Amino acid sequence: MKLFNLVKNFRNDEDGAVTVDWVVLTAAIVGLGIVVMNTVGSGLSTTASTLSSSVSTAVGSQTNTSISY
Questions:
Q1: What is the DSSP string of 1-68?
Q2: Measuring CA to CA, how many Å separate 9 from each of 1, 3, 16, 23?
Q3: Which of the four, 19, 40, 43, 64, has the lowest number of CB atoms within 10 Å?
Protein backbone atom coordinates (compact mmCIF):
# COMPACT_ATOMS: atom_id res chain seq x y z
CA MET A 1 0.00 0.00 0.00
CA LYS A 2 2.80 2.45 0.86
CA LEU A 3 4.60 1.60 -2.36
CA PHE A 4 1.51 2.48 -4.41
CA ASN A 5 1.19 5.81 -2.59
CA LEU A 6 4.87 6.53 -3.19
CA VAL A 7 4.53 5.82 -6.91
CA LYS A 8 1.34 7.88 -7.10
CA ASN A 9 2.99 10.86 -5.38
CA PHE A 10 6.04 10.57 -7.62
CA ARG A 11 3.87 10.54 -10.76
CA ASN A 12 1.89 13.60 -9.64
CA ASP A 13 4.97 15.63 -8.64
CA GLU A 14 5.50 18.45 -11.16
CA ASP A 15 8.56 20.21 -9.70
CA GLY A 16 10.87 18.80 -12.37
CA ALA A 17 8.60 19.95 -15.18
CA VAL A 18 8.56 23.49 -13.83
CA THR A 19 12.36 23.48 -13.65
CA VAL A 20 12.61 22.37 -17.27
CA ASP A 21 10.22 25.15 -18.30
CA TRP A 22 12.38 27.76 -16.56
CA VAL A 23 15.57 26.39 -18.13
CA VAL A 24 14.03 26.53 -21.62
CA LEU A 25 12.71 30.05 -21.02
CA THR A 26 16.08 31.26 -19.73
CA ALA A 27 17.91 29.71 -22.70
CA ALA A 28 15.51 31.45 -25.09
CA ILE A 29 16.09 34.83 -23.43
CA VAL A 30 19.88 34.40 -23.52
CA GLY A 31 19.73 33.35 -27.18
CA LEU A 32 17.59 36.36 -28.05
CA GLY A 33 20.06 38.64 -26.25
CA ILE A 34 22.96 37.22 -28.25
CA VAL A 35 21.09 37.72 -31.52
CA VAL A 36 20.25 41.32 -30.62
CA MET A 37 23.84 42.08 -29.60
CA ASN A 38 25.18 40.68 -32.88
CA THR A 39 22.65 42.66 -34.89
CA VAL A 40 23.10 45.95 -33.08
CA GLY A 41 26.81 45.59 -32.32
CA SER A 42 28.20 46.28 -35.79
CA GLY A 43 26.01 49.35 -36.30
CA LEU A 44 26.89 50.63 -32.85
CA SER A 45 30.60 50.21 -33.55
CA THR A 46 30.30 52.17 -36.80
CA THR A 47 28.34 54.94 -35.11
CA ALA A 48 30.87 55.18 -32.27
CA SER A 49 33.76 55.48 -34.74
CA THR A 50 31.97 58.19 -36.71
CA LEU A 51 31.16 60.11 -33.54
CA SER A 52 34.72 59.80 -32.30
CA SER A 53 36.20 61.19 -35.50
CA SER A 54 33.65 64.01 -35.58
CA VAL A 55 34.40 65.01 -31.99
CA SER A 56 38.18 64.87 -32.50
CA THR A 57 37.85 67.04 -35.63
CA ALA A 58 35.66 69.56 -33.81
CA VAL A 59 37.95 69.69 -30.79
CA GLY A 60 41.06 69.90 -32.98
CA SER A 61 39.71 72.90 -34.87
CA GLN A 62 38.78 74.70 -31.65
CA THR A 63 42.10 74.20 -29.87
CA ASN A 64 43.87 77.44 -29.01
CA THR A 65 47.58 76.95 -28.42
CA SER A 66 48.32 80.52 -27.37
CA ILE A 67 47.35 81.12 -23.77
CA SER A 68 47.59 84.65 -22.42
CA TYR A 69 47.36 85.60 -18.78
A1: -HHHHHHHHHHH--HHHHHHHHHHHHHHHHHHHHHHHHHHHHHHHHHHHHHHHHHHHHHHHH------
A2: 12, 10, 13, 24
A3: 64
pLDDT, tens only, 27-52: 999 999 999 999 898 888 888 889 98
The rounded distance, in Å, linking the Cα atoms of 30 and 32 is: 5
**Cα within 13 Å of Cα(35), Cβ side:** 6
- The model's pTM: 0.49
- How far apart CA 26 and CA 20 sit, in angstroms, is 10
The rounded distance, in Å, linking the Cα atoms of 35 and 31 is 6
